[in-house]
UniProtKB/TrEMBL annotation:
The keyword Thylakoid does not apply. GO terms for molecular function: cytoskeletal motor activity; structural molecule activity. It is found in: Bacterial flagellum basal body. Keywords: Bacterial flagellum, Cell projection, Cilium, Flagellum. It holds the Pfam family FliE. This is Flagellar hook-basal body complex protein FliE. Belongs to the FliE family. One of its GO terms (biological process) is bacterial-type flagellum-dependent cell motility. The lineage of its organism: Bacteria, Bacillati, Bacillota, Clostridia, Eubacteriales. InterPro entries: FliE (IPR001624). GO terms for cellular component: bacterial-type flagellum basal body. NCBIfam families: fliE (TIGR00205).
Length: 103
């Protein structure tokens, strides 16, 4: 039985030899706190809700908006909101579990 040799692609290791400027950019992105990250994601959910509302209003007004775009925007906003609610529920559940633990 012959075992094939693994030859890694050189593109995988390109980030290893990058300059120090790229490293400082990575440090800036890593310094974002959990609260800021969560706020950013909630802002994205809010933006999707607003986009859905705007496309629905433009369709109702009779603008040149495709019904498929309205449905896609609405479903995307609905799914992102449902995901945000599920994540919130998991956080609340984890918080309650931590409060129940005895020291």
């Amino acid at each position: 039985m012959k075992i094939n040799e693994f030859v890694p692609d050189s593109k995988i290791f390109q980030k290893i030899g990058t300059s120090s400027n790229d490293n400082s950019e990575n440090k800036e992105t890593e310094s974002v706190g959990f609260g800021e990250f969560l706020k950013g994601k909630l802002d994205e959910v809010n933006a999707q809700q607003i986009k859905s509302e705007d496309t629905t209003e433009s369709f109702i007004k009779g603008d040149e908006t495709n019904i498929h775009k309205v449905m896609l925007d609405t479903e995307e906003a609905k799914m992102s909101l449902e995901l945000a609610v599920q994540i919130r529920n998991k956080f609340v559940e984890a918080y309650q579990e931590l409060n129940r633990t005895q020291l």
